[in-house]
Amino acid sequence: MEKIDLAVVFYEKEIDILALLVKSIELHCESSLIDKIYFINNAVNPSQCREAFEKTVLPLFENFKEAICLVDAISLGINHKDEANPYIAQQALKLSISALSDKEHYLVLDAENHFIRKLKRDDLFSESGKPISHLQIHGGYLKTCLKESCSYFDVDVDPDKAVLPTVTPYLMITSLVKELLKEVEKREGNGIYELISKNDKITEFLLYFSYLTYRGGIEHFYSLETKPYATLFTKWPESEGDIKRVLESTKQDNVWMFSVHSKRFSQLKVNEIDFIASLWVERGLFESVDGAKKFIEKQINASSSMPPVLLNAAGDGKVVEGRNKRLFIANDSNEVIKQHRGERLLNDSQIKAWRRVIETRHAFCTVKGVSYRLMIVPDAHAVHKDELPQLDKVNAERPIDQITSALYDRSYISYPLVELIDAAKRGESYHPVDSHYTAYGAYVCYKRIMQDLRVNIPILKDDDVELITKRGSGDLGEKFSPHRVADYTECVVKQGNAKKIWNNGVTNRGHMSVWVNPNSSLPTCVLFTDSYGWKIQRFLAESFSKLFIIHSPLLEHDAIDILKPNVVLSLMAERFLIYTPKDIFDKSALQFAHEKGGDIKSYEEILTVSNISI
Questions:
Q1: Which residues contact residue 23 at a Cβ distance below 8 angstroms, ignoring those fewer than 6 apart?
Q2: Domain residues for 220?
Q3: Is 478 among the domain residues?
Q4: Are residues 203 and 295 in the same domain?
Q5: Residues 6+ apart with CB under 8 A from 416
Q6: What DSSP letter does each residue of 16-41 carry, written as one string?
Q7: Cα(307)–Cα(185) distance, rounded to whole angstroms?
């Protein structure tokens, strides 16, 4: 009977976890079913990875020693010396493997996959001889990818209905993959890697599904049965019930593969570690529970080590130096570089929570006749992406994209990335050695948010401000000894009318202050903000008769009810989007102010203070 090939794409950090896969292949696969086993070396340093594979992994093979084929990615058109993106490369390689196989089918695996019982032919093929797959519904970002992938072959698919999966193990029909690749080359004049690089919302398996649909429909090619694997992804399952259900599913006769993603090991609870260790011993992968737990502990230590892209961290380890000596936040609790690499995304519940927060805020303000606007201030990593080597050739979805894509109405959210990039041609919109924008960058954001309000309010013009080049350090530069300094662009209002008449003396969250403008005919505004509000308030104060500053990520209803502004603005840094504010339940600015001391006033008292004439 026809055999299949196995194909595993891996890179240098996965050598240890590959050992578990190899054990499972030796124990649970039969030579009567498996022909070749292709290991595709997708490492940035392929020679070093090859050496590690040959030293650590290859000796583990006995039954399949003659079946092993170690192939460098460059053999399949991926050249890491040309700075190929490893993430996109592994997607392209899973399809390009078809060029190596002379079998009708090949089974794609990832390094973290491992067999947990004997693999039988009827696990892979139905009685009619069709390969077996299953259906699942894709939400969030994957739904967007499904739409984009189906759009490529112009097939009409309901994105809310179940389609083929997006994860391994994945049994591919070799001839159809080859035809897909030829079709891509015909349309693009380039290969699959270039296509995914150009449109990162196309993924390898969803494009394959799209092509099958284009060729007549998945039922024509696959027999659809139940899911044969159990997987603990990086972020899913989350609830105790879902985690237990996934782990318990490994006891089912139809489940022949288990996977734990590398970043999941550090999240495992004691009872989960006990379950997995016992499972591995029961299925012959380890001789003892202690041995299995030591393996898990090793993976936890490996996953907590500093990722390669951040090895040039300097100062206190929370900074990386980019090109032209520009400094960027790194290794922070927000994982900002991972956000910009598409490796730190929001899950479905977080996306839905953000949509509810934004839409509820807008509705609350609308009912009260208040104009509302949320501005997300782009990270320097986005504005100066070309100066950060870790983001070279990265065009990944980020939390800001997830949130805006989920909104039914985006008309009250501003993200001035284009404006800040353009502004950088005239001056430094971001301080080269500070994590924040400059006053010039704040002015650019001020103009954008005022224009987006679409309210008849006077806006400062370029003639009303003056740009001044200064030299100094910033919060990132001060992490070095001696301090790093750089030129930056200051922006001042030439003839400002507004004055700050009061602040409560509190630093950061809980800070409050009041600006008053002699022109009492102007509307009033409340600005809920983080540290990005410091430099923008000078400009906002010129457009309002009263400007109330509240350092809080929340939309605080009490403040709006008492201060009764005409306009409410929320301002926050992009990197904080991974935390969804809870406007009703989180601690208010007044509570923080009371805890921190200082000149504490109620909102009623603050309103009274604002009535002082200047």
A1: 60, 114, 285
A2: 129-225
A3: no
A4: no
A5: 375, 377, 378, 444, 445, 448, 449
A6: HHHHHHHHHHHHH--TTTEEEEEEEE
A7: 34
- Look at residues 305, 308, 278 and name the one whose alpha carbon lies nearest to residue 290: 278
- Residues 82, 169, single domain; the answer is no
DSSP state of 471: E
Tokens, residue 148: 């984009």
Are 409 and 297 members of one domain? Answer: no
Q: How far apart are the first and last CA of the chain?
A: 92
Q: Average pLDDT by consecutive 10-residue portion of the chain (614 residues)?
A: 92 90 95 95 90 92 94 89 80 95 96 95 94 90 86 90 94 97 91 86 93 94 95 86 94 95 88 95 95 91 53 62 92 89 93 95 96 97 94 92 92 94 93 96 97 92 96 88 90 95 90 96 97 96 97 96 97 95 90 86 94 78
Specify whether the CB–CB gap between 377 and 445 falls below 8 A: yes
**Which distant-in-sequence residues (6+ apart) come within 8 Å of 403 by Cβ?**
346, 351, 354, 355, 358, 413, 577
Are both 142 and 79 inside the same structural domain?
Answer: no
User: Are residues 105 and 88 part of one domain?
Assistant: yes
SS3 at position 110: strand
CB 42 within 8 A of CB 70: no
The answer on 299 and 151 residing in a single domain is no
Whole-model pTM above 0.85? no
Instruction: Report how many domains make up the chain.
Output: 4
Ranges of H-type helices in 424-473 = 439-453
- 87-125: string of b/e by CB count within 10 Å (b at 16+)? ebbbbbbbbbbbebbebebbbbbbbbbbbbbebeeebbb
| Predicted local distance difference test score (pLDDT) of residue 304 | 52
